[in-house]
Design a protein that fits this description.
By secondary structure, the protein is α+β, with helices and mostly antiparallel strands. It has helices at residues 6-10, 14-26, 49-58, 66-74, 77-80, 99-115; strands at 30-37, 40-47. The protein has 2 domains: 1-75, Arc Repressor Mutant, subunit A; 81-117. It contains 6 helices and 2 strands; from the N terminus they run ααββαααα. Strand 1 and strand 2 (40-47) form a beta hairpin. It binds iron/sulfur cluster.
């Protein structure tokens, strides 16, 4: 998938998509290769299928497509959180006590339980 085409497909700003893709790349969930598209620099974005599938299975989702992976990962509160760099165990921002992350995980568990009945 060409990075510059993603914002229109999932109706998010280019800036947010770029920020999310940077994080996904750092997490090893995608790989990006520089390319030219419509005479502009952009990237070819490919999922690291093995890692993405493992992560999605752990949270109760099946891997379907790169678009679905991006949509799913964008919903994880930490991906868009401005405190990501300052959030750590025992810190002022601590994942163990984060209401946003707690609510996200609770919803995932509830959905997983509903789907597995
Ligand atoms: S755990 Fe909460 S505060 Fe920390 S990065 Fe995630 S959403 Fe932000």
């Amino acid at each position: 998938m060409i990075q510059s085409t993603i914002p229109g497909k999932i109706k998010l700003s280019s800036k947010l998509v770029s920020k999310v893709l940077n994080k996904l790349e750092k997490m090893g969930l995608i790989e990006r290769t520089p390319t030219m598209y419509n005479k502009r620099k952009t990237y070819i974005v490919k999922p690291n299928v093995e890692t993405a599938t493992k992560v999605l299975r752990e949270i109760g989702e099946d891997f379907i497509s790169l678009e679905d992976v991006i949509k799913e990962i964008i919903n994880i509160p930490c991906v868009k959180c401005p405190q990501t760099e300052r959030c750590y165990e025992g810190g002022f921002y601590d994942p163990a006590f984060c209401p946003l992350l707690g609510e996200y995980i609770e919803n995932k568990i509830n959905n997983y339980n509903k789907n597995s009945q």
